[in-house]
Write a structure and sequence with these properties.
Oligomer: single chain
Shape: globular
Distance between the termini: 36 Å
Helix content: 25-40%
Strand order of the largest sheet: 6-7-8-3-9-10
Structural class: alpha/beta
Number of strands: 10
Length: 240
């Protein structure tokens, strides 16, 4: 069985020479739900951008369901990007169309699906995030919580096997945050979530990976790592 995500000794430096990832190795099984935590600048977002080939050029190997990402040809990269749905921290980075329907339909249209299939995918994705009544709404008029749900729907519409989320609870009020938690709990996809919200981690993610200085410094059961106050403090985290 292939891992959903398999990373072997990944190294990456930005053009200015700053090393962002240092010997990262990580394996995530299909259906597993894993939180990626650490201080700002630790390398979490850089790591996630390697999972669908947005970033590349470093050494090491990144595989998605057995497909090698770094150095992949165009056809393989398209398959990888269909398998990995990336939800950015700021939903405005993903929502750019005049209506919610258009935003959620973008992926299925890009896949070349016929109109009836596109409409079915949009309806299914919006139903999954409890936003079926929003098809004609303008995304820029929505609340932050509503925008995040639409951004997730836009990713779900292409039916990814893996959902990668960057700070999904940032900027949400308590009601919207609770709605997001309830939504994420129901999703069947493999989840990798970068977050500073350790209460969210405790509630949703049985496994936690701590990244600091571009390195994985701890990887284990969430409750065990959250109970280690010295470990959390050493890496800029607070026990929830």
């Amino acid at each position: 069985m292939n891992y959903a995500i398999e990373i072997d000794r990944l190294n990456f430096a930005y053009p200015d020479g700053r090393k962002a990832l240092n010997e990262i190795s990580l394996q995530i099984e299909p259906g597993e739900k894993v939180a990626l935590v650490g201080p700002n600048g630790a390398g979490k977002s850089t790591l996630m951008l390697h999972l669908n080939g947005i970033l590349g050029g470093g050494s090491g190997r990144v595989c998605i369901d057995g497909m090698v990402v770094n150095g992949a040809d165009k056809r393989t990269l398209e398959r990888v990007r269909g398998a990995v749905g990336l939800v950015f921290q700021q939903p405005d980075d993903q929502l750019f169309s005049p209506t919610v329907f258009d935003d959620v339909a973008f992926g299925p249209i890009y896949q070349g699906l016929p109109e009836l299939a596109v409409r079915a995918k949009v309806a299914e994705a919006l139903a999954a995030v409890s936003m079926s009544d929003y098809t004609a709404r303008m995304p820029f008029h929505l609340s932050t919580g509503e925008k995040k749900r639409i951004a997730i729907a836009a990713v779900l519409a292409v039916q990814p096997q893996i959902l990668v989320l960057d700070e999904p609870s940032a900027g949400l009020d308590p009601r919207a945050r609770r709605g997001l938690i309830n939504l994420l709990r129901t999703l069947p996809q493999t989840l990798l979530c970068s977050t500073h919200d350790l209460l969210l981690v405790r509630e949703l993610f049985p496994r936690m990976v701590i990244v600091d200085g571009g390195c994985i410094v701890a990887d284990g059961a969430t409750e065990a790592l959250l109970s280690d106050g010295a470990l959390l403090e050493a890496h800029g985290l607070e026990r929830p």
